[in-house]
Design a protein that fits this description.
The chain is an alpha+beta fold. Among the domains are: about 110 residues, Orthogonal Bundle (Endonuclease III, domain 1), CATH 1.10.340.70; about 70 residues, Endonuclease III, domain 1, CATH 1.10.340. It contains twelve helices and ten strands. The strands form three sheets. It has a four-stranded mixed beta sheet with strand order 1-2-3-4. It has a four-stranded mixed beta sheet with strand order 5-6-7-8. The chain has a two-stranded antiparallel ribbon with strand order 9-10. The radius of gyration is 52 Å and the shape is elongated. About 10% of the residues are buried. The mean pLDDT is about 80.
Length: about 280
């Protein structure tokens, strides 16, 4: 842990610092040309803010830290491990020296305690991997990740094995891709499954009624004998005959009109009643 920094230490180191000795001379002599010297040129932009007090240099109310104490000052400000931003804010509120931000960042990035709690290193960067980067050899086979790469001669057989349960295209592709890989695996799987007779037999899509155009109303078309020709055409329709319920309905029959009493018009029976008896009905 760095020792506490006192004003006396800063004053002592300032008196022996070669750069700050030139800064003190430039302030005391008020020589504008003195600020052009390479060693103190970085103080030129703030020269109007610089003053002397108790053998130390001030920039406004902030103490100018000599080179020998800069690293120690940064470590003192970083004792709470509050990160780069807050450490720089704390430093700049009390002290100043050239390149204060840059030197502070460099020092904090070397802090082991901050590295141990830095979550950024645990975040996986977005990486686009090439296929060849994932290929490995194992027991005379080629692996892509954990999946076996199937040679061309075994690809069709592999698809058929995965499709034994006839689970459809989507589930078959999912099963294949979880275990194996080969070029155009999705396309070849779809082609193979579409040739599957068992899947075609249970494909409900073929039972869906095709889109049919309704009969055009008579108000739209006309030709001679339209009714007669339409009836003739429909009576030849086998599908209509198969579903025609009219053959199950008894045709309307006109009975003979009686011209004398007690003429037998019709006979029928009803039953069975109790003891297997039937009733004969005779119409007169």
């Amino acid at each position: 842990m760095p020792k506490k920094l006192t004003v006396q230490e800063v004053a002592k180191e300032t008196e022996t610092d070669p750069v700050l000795k030139q800064v003190i001379a430039a302030i005391q002599n008020q020589n504008a040309n003195a600020w052009e010297k390479p060693d103190i040129r970085q103080f030129k932009n703030v020269k109007d803010e610089l003053t002397l007090g108790q053998s130390i240099i001030l920039r406004g109310h902030r103490i100018i830290i000599p080179t020998s104490l800069q690293q120690r000052t940064i470590k003192l400000a970083h004792l709470g491990h509050q990160g780069i931003v807050k450490t720089k804010q704390l430093l700049r509120s009390k002290v100043w020296f050239p390149n204060i931000d840059k030197l502070t960042e460099q020092e904090i990035r070397k802090c082991i305690a901050c590295q141990a709690t830095d979550e950024s290193k645990y975040k996986a960067p977005l990486q686009l991997r090439d296929v060849k980067d994932e290929l490995t050899l194992g027991q005379s086979i080629i692996l892509r990740g954990h999946r076996i790469i199937i040679p061309r001669s075994l690809q069709q057989r592999t698809i058929k094995l995965a499709h034994l349960g006839h689970q459809g295209i989507v589930k078959t592709k999912q099963l294949l891709r979880s275990k194996v890989w080969f070029p155009n695996i999705d396309k070849l799987t779809e082609q193979e499954i579409r040739k599957c007779i068992a899947c075609q037999a249970t494909d409900e899509s073929k039972y869906k009624a095709p889109l049919q155009l309704r009969e055009t109303p008579r108000s739209k078309v006309w030709f001679p004998n339209i009714d007669k020709l339409t009836e003739q055409e429909i009576r030849k329709c086998i599908a209509c005959q198969a579903t025609d319920e009219s053959k199950y309905k008894a045709p309307l029959q006109l009975r003979e009109t009686p011209n004398q009493p007690f003429i037998n018009l019709d006979i029928d029976y009803a039953g069975p009643f109790q003891n297997n008896k039937y009733a004969v009905l005779q119409y007169h």
